[in-house]
Amino acid sequence: MTRKSRGAVRRPAETPAPSAASASAASPAKRRHLWLAVGVAVLLAIAGIGVVVTRPVALPSPAAASVPAPASYVGANSCQTCHQSEFAAWTGSHHQLAMQEATDSSVLGDFANVEFTHRGVESRFFKSPDGQFMVRTDGPDGKLADYPISYTFGVYPLQQYLIAFPGGRYQVLPIAWDSRPGSEGGQRWFHLYPDQKLDHKDPLHWTGIYQNWALQCAECHSTNLRKAYDAPSNSYQTTFSEINVACESCHGPASAHLSWASKAKAPYAAHDDKGLLSLKSGGSGAWHFPDREAKFAVRDQPADPAGMNSCGACHSRRATLSEARQAGAPLSDSHRLAMLTAPNYYPDGQQREEVYVWGSFLQSKMHQRGVSCMDCHEPHSQKLRAEGNALCTRCHQASEFDAPKHHRHQDGGKGAQCVTCHMPSQNYMVVHARPDHSLRIPRPDLSTALGSPNACTQCHADKQPAWAAAAMDGWYGKTWRDRPHYGFTLHAGETQGVRALPSLLELASSTAQPAIVRATALTLAQPYAGPATLPAARALLLDSDPLVRSAALGMLERTDPMNRALSASPLLLDPVRGVRIEAARILADVPDSQLPAGRQAAREAALQEYVAALEQEADWPAVNVNLGNLRLRQGRFDAAIAAFQRAIVLDKSFTGGYVNLADAWRQQGRESEAEEVLRAGLAVLPDAADLHHVLGLLLTRKGESGAALKEFVEAVRLAPDNARYAYVQAIALHSAGKREAALAVLRDANKRHANDLEILSALISISRETGDQRAALRYARQAAEILPNDQNVEQLVRELEGR
């Protein structure tokens, strides 16, 4: 399972919870996901051992005592008296069973001395004489050992198991129980990494850093969770109020509501403050058909976004900014949502990696038209409000859409089901089929152009996209192919370099497009931002959506300090934490004297929020690199180096730790320390192209050009699609007097990276040097196509043309 958010904790149910370390940013060479079972249809989801109990236990908290919270957690049982129907619906739901103590009633797997073999490791599931559920499998030293099961994780379609380790950790066993019926292939043990062999030295081994419950998945399986990671001791004292996803996970702490309920008498005033945020969205009665001829239902009034915001906090792929999440608050106030970029998404925004549903749903026309999560899902039971097409025809006229004239398939068959075409599923965690909630119209033509899947050939697996497109031509004519789609622009942003910049900015500025699409366009444009894009970025800093504002701030990162200060400093006071943090990050190195009057204090406050977010997530190697980069921007070199070193200690296979640490030493002129770091990294990661490339740059600075060239060649061999590495190799060859070899590398790179200006610049320069004016002119014209209004390029073309 991919990374999720982390919750909050307060009395009366502040109990020591299981600890575990997270897995968000494994090394680039190993972007594999920690698979953790979740029960609901698509749940978004080193000393001493922490123990979780379900009873409220007050823990001493001097900080909390000095600043009393306005409300505290009271537990689901306190809600039952007044909300019996909701409590009954929740009981037995996947939320209620999200995490449980391992007992005879909660464990679904077969522990009757069952053996399971994977990649040469023979594991055995059994019960000890005293009834404890046990597994014998390979441990952190690679040797077989017996481990007691502490907790179950999820219930359907699979169940996973947590095992206690020192330091308050709970590690997630990679062998899961398939809880589907036997007729569907279930009732068996299976491995979540069936095609990989992960030995005990691999950080993705079940005993390693990236299979740690608290680091990766705890926040969304328990209520009011505080990770409480202590960096100096590298240990956890994780707490939660309730072991599962209970009432207050969504509604927030309810003590004030309980107080109100003890005094209030019916009838209740409509505007009475009941001490708890309402998450109602209208549910099944929110929509109606305005007349008998209407194709679509309409909503009487927009749903309050608070309800969906509560869902998005866990049902999304994101990084955590703060555990102090307010119920119903925008996701950007507590988390950073993943954009629609590779490898998480296909170019047209369809789910690819395990991204859960929020990023998909935000793209949908359903979301844009006011549909909420609770219109389709009953929030307490998590069941659909209707089965099959009956769910869709609550808002889409059945006579128009639940008919062969629309779906073009045989009635009653799989092809006649709305979700088959509009929400195609993909399996995650091997057996967990999850529908794509972008609810899109099938576009087999995009499969040909962008390489994305389509619902047609997912069912008709023996056919090609062209076959499906031809069938649609027969049904609708060919005009459907002309419908614009943002996937073309996003794909260009990932493949065409700076050439895509104008279309990315145009997409980002289109308020008709979903905010997540616009923010993704800005994210892809950021590497090519400069003075010319400053007006567009400034305009988007005023956008109503925090995703767009945050991405627009990223467009300013390479701008001079004065323009950065003038443009970004107002957002230090943004109402959304994620925006404030991003503004503080890009302004971290701007001198106080260049900030507008009165903004110094705002920057300091936002920087404190940013540092708090980084320290809270300091069990992630990548977060330590982010902290190191912040300290570098602030000129705090010792702190930066300590952060980079800590990233490596946490994960010796994390390439980014070595690269950033070496660069920090370089900035201080300490090349010997930088070289030592890089060679230590290569001893662990001999196939890391980044390390070979950076070592080549270091050797070049030392004057060891021959040795440097060998490193550049190796970097290109290991990462042939990296245009920068090919460019640097060519320059090194040219410097060594191997001009023809350099040209050969550049020509080959230009074929694969036709829009890379560095490669074109080198081709023009070396071609002119050899007297090949015709080739130089050809490459200059190619550059002019990429930068059609650049005066310097136009002047170069005229010069080469002899004008």
From TrEMBL:
Protein name as annotated: Lipoprotein NlpI
InterPro entries in UniProt: Cyt_c-552/4 (IPR023155), Multihaem_cyt_sf (IPR036280), Multiheme_Cytochr_ET (IPR051829), Paired_CXXCH_1 (IPR010177), TPR-like_helical_dom_sf (IPR011990), TPR_rpt (IPR019734)
Domain Cytochrome c-552/4: residue ranges: 79-103, 214-252
Domain Doubled CXXCH motif: 372-398
MF terms (GO), sorted A to Z: oxidoreductase activity
KW Lipoprotein (keyword) present: yes
Keywords: Lipoprotein, Membrane, Signal, TPR repeat, Transmembrane, Transmembrane helix
UniProt feature, compositional bias: Low complexity: 14-24
SMART domains, A to Z: TPR (SM00028)
Keyword field contains Nucleus: no
Region (Disordered) residue spans: 1-24
Transmembrane segments: 34-53
Provenance organism: Accumulibacter regalis
TPR repeats: 621-654, 689-722
Name of one Pfam family that matches: Cytochrome_C554
